[in-house]
Amino acid sequence: MRRLPLVPTLIVAGAAAIMTWLGIWQLHRAAWKERLLAEYAANAALPALDLDPVIARGADVPLAFRRVLITCHARDLAPQARGARSLHGEGGYAYLVPCRPGAGGLAGRIMVNVGWTALPLHDRRFTVDGLVAGRLGAEQAGKPIMLTSATALAPLQPAAPPSIDEVPNNHMSYAMQWFIFAGLAVGIYLIALARRGRRLPPEP
């Protein structure tokens, strides 16, 4: 019986083991994402939450995709523009202003989507001073939280609220890819060994 070439065998075995581990890791990530999406769906079904007392108390509550009310104090600000869709799915631009400019903590992280236009607006300034009702988007530690207002500021139209369906969940397909890569690596190596064995003369 011929001996397996040591170094190539170790390399292929190590690579296959790593790819298999990555596939298993993605399976765990898929399970975690399913739990996260279920939490988002539960949040979306809850009644509207008044954020003012939450912010005042410094309470820690799940906010992603929650309907909320908050008092904003943003006056005469130039908005940030970004690609977005209208309530009817049309492409265009949304305009974002901080709810409470200069505030710390949660209040300082909330950006209000004040509306949508099909074509970009230039040199426009907005004031959001009062109660805003809308839906929050996904929450990531240390990053701004998007609040899409249910009503738009003139001359804007309401923008599409954040949708849980837009949250990517590709971990299962990534896991399958890693398992396929591991199987292909082993399979190709076994074929190479078989061809090598046919070319070599028999051992004495």
Automatic annotation (TrEMBL):
Q: What is its main location?
A: membrane
Where does the protein end up?
Answer: Cell membrane; Membrane
- GO CC annotation, single: plasma membrane
The regions listed as transmembrane in this protein's record are 7-27, 175-194
Q: Per its UniProt entry, which superkingdom is the organism in?
A: Bacteria
* One Pfam entry name: SURF1
Membrane topology classification: Multi-pass membrane protein
Swiss-Prot/TrEMBL keywords? Cell membrane, Membrane, Transmembrane, Transmembrane helix
Q: Which family does it belong to?
A: Belongs to the SURF1 family.
Q: Which PANTHER family match?
A: SURFEIT LOCUS PROTEIN (PTHR23427), SURFEIT LOCUS PROTEIN 1 (PTHR23427:SF2)
Q: What is this protein called?
A: SURF1-like protein
The organism named in the record is Allosphingosinicella ginsenosidimutans
Source lineage: Bacteria, Pseudomonadati, Pseudomonadota, Alphaproteobacteria, Sphingomonadales
